[in-house]
Design brief:
The structure is a single chain. By secondary structure, the protein is an alpha/beta fold. 39% of the residues lie in helices and 14% in strands. It contains 15 helices and 16 strands. The strands form 4 sheets. Strands 5-11-10-9-8-6-7 form a 7-stranded mixed beta sheet, sandwiched between helices. A 4-stranded mixed beta sheet has the order 2-3-4-14. A 3-stranded antiparallel beta sheet has the order 12-13-15, with helices on both faces. The relative contact order is 0.18.
């Protein structure tokens, strides 16, 4: 088993949090209005005219014109037609460095030929789906289990959201308890019961539009990095039926946007054992990006259940799964025949574990391991963030840049660092207004990056892959510098 990790040096969490605290207290620094207008007119309007026209037509049929939450919308979404290695190409033929990486799964880089050839071979042989068992279902599950110690069994599902849903159903069956505790600000998909406390710690039900409040009867949140708060909630739940599970993103909510102390996961594990709750690691982003043994291997923690996302299908569809210890995974027994003496969790998915996705996932993990892709992506992340930090200092900006290996953060406005405090309800409207204003400026900076040929996640997060090399770094940093030159305090 490969024990190398992408994180060469864990970030100084106290320093990062202090920097982020300072960032949201300062005036907003953003792209100058005249520079933004120039990007809009000289780049987007002139060089992306085909995208503009297609999105105009798409808006008549598709709500908002796009169907993915990660699509960048200012001044209009671009239409991408090709992905290869570190590059993306749009409908107008413009070329970009890809730091979105499909939201994180493409550790090898986009559309690697070694995986693509195996997928084409599979399509020629049996097609994408039969609804019946295929040998690569076993091979993929075995590959994951061989690398992640706590995953004694694995069941593939359609998405990370579905895996999160399944995890809490399994936890409730296994513990005979109902309450679920999640870390405030963490994202565990968009299912009813887990759309609680998302984006910012303390949001509770406020971001779950369309979900009745009663759905959150058994869901609570605790503050990130606060073991005392977690234990307080666990102790309280003992009086109301106990806690079935604690869900966490192991590097911090929203993929480490608010980073956690290195020993925090160990503390959570200890509390889960003390109070009889299952520990559920959401490794949608971190599995096979931080290490072949996942974030749990890096932090030396043994969760009871592990949630997987896009990487287990190599960026292909049917991108999710749930793994864990046999005593809990037995509740996910599938098939038409009966025979089991225990209740089965209600899960499904006709296209889950289809041959195409299993082949893609298996060979993706093989190639990640063979090419030492995790280490390579992490080392490039280190160099990228170091270069960005030097630019921040050069232009005397309040921006905060840090990384957990190949998961990189470039916070320019600190939108995700605010907190909702229900003990001071009179402050809530001003906090929500501040986050809305800052989010708009985050979109403007993201648009400037895009015009400079840099595709990011919401203008504040970047994923690196093994396809990047050091020779590309000067060009990439010069593009960031072009944007930083145009930044000033918002008037």
């Amino acid at each position: 088993m490969d024990q190398r990790f992408s994180i060469s040096e864990y970030p100084d969490v106290k320093k990062v949090i202090n920097q982020l605290d300072g960032l949201i207290k300062k005036p907003i620094y953003t792209v100058r209005p005249e520079a933004l207008k120039r990007y809009e007119e000289e780049y987007f309007d002139k060089k992306c005219s085909k995208s503009k026209e297609m999105i105009k037509e798409a808006k008549e049929i598709i709500p908002g014109g796009v169907q993915h939450n990660l699509a960048f919308n200012h001044p209009f979404p671009l239409v991408f037609t090709k992905a290869e290695g570190v590059y993306l190409y749009d409908l107008d033929g413009n070329k970009y460095y890809d730091f979105l990486q499909a939201g994180g799964p493409t550790v090898l880089g986009s559309n690697p030929i070694e995986v693509r050839e195996k997928v084409i071979e599979l399509l020629n042989d049996c097609g994408p789906s039969t609804g019946l068992f295929h040998e690569y279902e076993y091979k993929l599950a075995k590959k994951i289990s061989d690398n992640i110690k706590s995953v004694e069994m694995f069941r593939m599902l359609g998405s990370g959201t579905e895996a999160c849903m399944a995890s809490i159903r399994v936890a409730r069956l296994a513990t005979k308890k109902k309450n679920i505790l999640k870390m405030g600000g963490a994202y565990h998909g968009w299912s009813d019961q887990l759309a609680y406390g998302i984006r910012l710690p303390g949001t509770k039900h406020t971001q779950a539009n369309g979900v009745p409040r009663k759905m959150f009867k058994y869901t609570q949140e605790f503050f990130p990095n606060d073991l005392k708060d977690l234990e307080k909630k666990l102790r309280f739940n003992q009086l109301r039926g106990g806690t079935a599970a604690v869900l966490i993103e192991p590097i911090g909510p929203e993929s480490g946007t608010r980073p956690l102390d290195k020993d925090f996961n160990k503390g959570v594990e200890k509390l889960c054992r003390k109070y009889g709750a299952l520990l559920i690691f959401d490794e949608v982003v971190t599995a096979f990006r931080i290490g072949m043994s996942g974030a749990q291997g890096y932090f030396d923690v043994s969760p009871d259940l592990t949630i997987f996302g896009k990487v287990v299908a190599g960026g292909y569809p049917s991108a999710g799964g749930l793994g864990g210890k046999k005593e809990y995974m037995k509740y996910l027994t599938a098939g038409i025949s009966g025979g089991s003496k225990h209740k089965k969790a209600l899960v499904g998915g006709t296209m889950a574990a289809n041959p195409l996705s299993c082949v893609a996932g298996y060979y993706t993990l093989c190639e990640i391991e063979r090419k030492k892709a995790i280490e390579k992506a992490g080392l490039f992340g280190d160099k990228l963030i170091k270069g960005v930090q030097e630019l921040i200092e050069k232009y005397n900006l309040p921006f905060v840049a840090f990384n957990q290996g190949s998961i990189c953060h470039l916070e320019t406005v600190g939108t995700m660092h605010f907190v909702i405090n229900w003990r001071k309800p009179w402050q809530i409207p001003s906090v929500l207004n501040a986050t809305s204003e800052r989010k708009k400026e985050m979109e403007h900076i993201g648009a400037a990056y895009m015009a400079e040929g840099l595709v990011t996640l919401a203008g504040s997060r970047l994923y690196t892959s093994a396809a990047y090399n050091e020779e590309m770094l000067p060009d990439i940093l010069s593009r960031f510098e072009n944007v930083f030159k145009e930044v000033a305090i918002k008037e």
